[in-house]
């Protein structure tokens, strides 16, 4: 019903516009404006959905990038001493990043040391080892970062010996089914 009315109004305006050439341009602009408003009203809320979806999804990409930065972190435990030499764990870590990590996430992040000289030595050692283990010649970027490695609470050095692990079984209710003669609530 509403659409018929709008179409009728458009035909009426078109008829008037063809009868009076001087006012035709004004009426044509009016008819075009009415048609545009009608189309825009029928598209609602779609023009606003895409920006909303992008705003909701943006933090997830940041979280993914931060997770890969933490995953590909070569930190203090991957080096021997203060000269920036890689330990066996550091070599395994870099080999995994270069050869096995997904291609889009092959970036090596080196934790900044206490001094600039030590940081530069770390960066050089990591770069040289990455070149050495790269089979296809594509060496991933090596970037300096201040991200700390993942840790755990100080009172939980061994999860099997922690107070949390000892107290957990006490809090778990008994797991048995009631006998058929017992009443259940």
User: Beta-strand percentage?
Assistant: 5-15%
> What oligomeric state best describes the polypeptide chains here?
single chain
The SS-based structural class is mainly alpha
Task: For the largest sheet, list the strands in their spatial order.
Answer: 1-4-5
Q: How many alpha or pi helices?
A: 6
Question: What's the number of extended β-strand segments?
Answer: 5
Helix content: 55-70%
SSE string, helices as H and strands as E: HHHEEEHEHEH
Computed Rg: 34 Å
In whole angstroms, the N-to-C terminal distance is 60 Å
What shape does the CA trace take? flat
Q: Any low-confidence stretches, pLDDT <50, length ≥5?
A: none
Average residue-wise pLDDT: 83
Q: How many domains make up the 3D coordinates?
A: 2
Major sheet: 3 strands, parallel
Identify the notable features of this structure and list them briefly:
flat; two-stranded antiparallel sheet; 185 residues; mainly alpha
